Amino acid sequence: MENNNSALEEIQAHLAEIEHKHDIRIIFAIESGSRAWGFASPDSDYDVRYIYVKHPEAYFNLGKSEDSFEYYPAPEMDMVGWDLGKYLKLIYKSNSVAFEWANSPIVYRKTDEWEQIADLIEDYFNPKASIYHYYGEGAHIFKANENNSTISYKSYLYILRVILAARYIKRHSKVPPMPFGDLVEDNLPPEQKTSVTEILELKAKIKEKDQEKRYADLDAFISAELPGLKAYAESLTPGEQKDIAPLNKIFFSAVIKDFWGRK
């Protein structure tokens, strides 16, 4: 892809191709991963994610019904879509990835139907479930790198992102923003900001998987933060399970009444 404009045109063409091939309608499409978080490298992939609805008849099929599609149109692009029913079930469980999709700053498609859904889903956010998710993700990546003398800056930033997202939830009890810069500004102690600024500047120039030097201050910060996040998540009460009826209603509306009913 030569530039952002050509990438955008290619993404839109592929979204239309997916709709035609699978007889679906895409109601929301975004960028996930490094580009959405704000720390892309020159060779970062385009990680396109989308939410779709099938034709109503497909939901009454007694055979196997797909609830996701994966498409890899180019080596530097992957496109993954979830059926709206699957997506809303994950929202009901306070799945952090589902909330991240909803909050991506890079949006390729957004419909009126999606706006109705977006107004509703944050009611299902559960701080305990989300902090557990971010703790687990950060601990897994850090453990895989803790004995190495070098580390990819992508791994560093991924670990820091989830820690800062969890810290944001701890402070504000709401869905954290996607842009890494917002999390840094809100949550990162001043003594680590110099190292993070340097890493961001370097990562913008090097390849995704290049191994680079470690930062003692960041390693110390990560080692201290991860156990605390786990302990904090364990201290939280599960919270009252929200009523699933509003999600059922909006799912029915999006599939039957509003969206396909116009065709």
Protein model, in words:
The chain folds into two domains: 4-125 and 241-262, Beta Polymerase, domain 2 (2-Layer Sandwich), CATH 3.30.460; 127-235. The chain is 55% helix and 16% strand. It has eleven helices and seven strands. A five-stranded mixed β-sheet has the order 3-4-2-1-5, sandwiched between helices. It has a two-stranded antiparallel sheet with strand order 6-7. It holds the Pfam family RlaP. It comes from Succinivibrio dextrinosolvens.
In angstroms, what is the radius of gyration? 20 Å
Classification by helices and strands = alpha+beta
How many separate structural domains?
Answer: 2
* Strand line-up across the major sheet: 3-4-2-1-5
User: How far apart are the termini?
Assistant: 34 Å
- Backbone shape: globular
Helix content bin: 55-70%
Number of helical segments? 11
Query: What proportion of the residues form beta strands (DSSP E)?
Result: 15-25%
CATH superfamily of the largest domain, please? Beta Polymerase, domain 2
The CATH class assignment of the largest domain is Alpha Beta
CATH architectural arrangement of the largest domain? 2-Layer Sandwich
Instruction: Please state the average pLDDT score.
Output: 91
How many beta strands in the DSSP annotation? 7
Order of helices and strands: HEHEEEHHEHHEHHHEHH
Give a quick account of the main beta sheet: strands, pairing sense, barrel closure: 5 strands, mixed
- CATH fold name of the largest domain: Beta Polymerase, domain 2
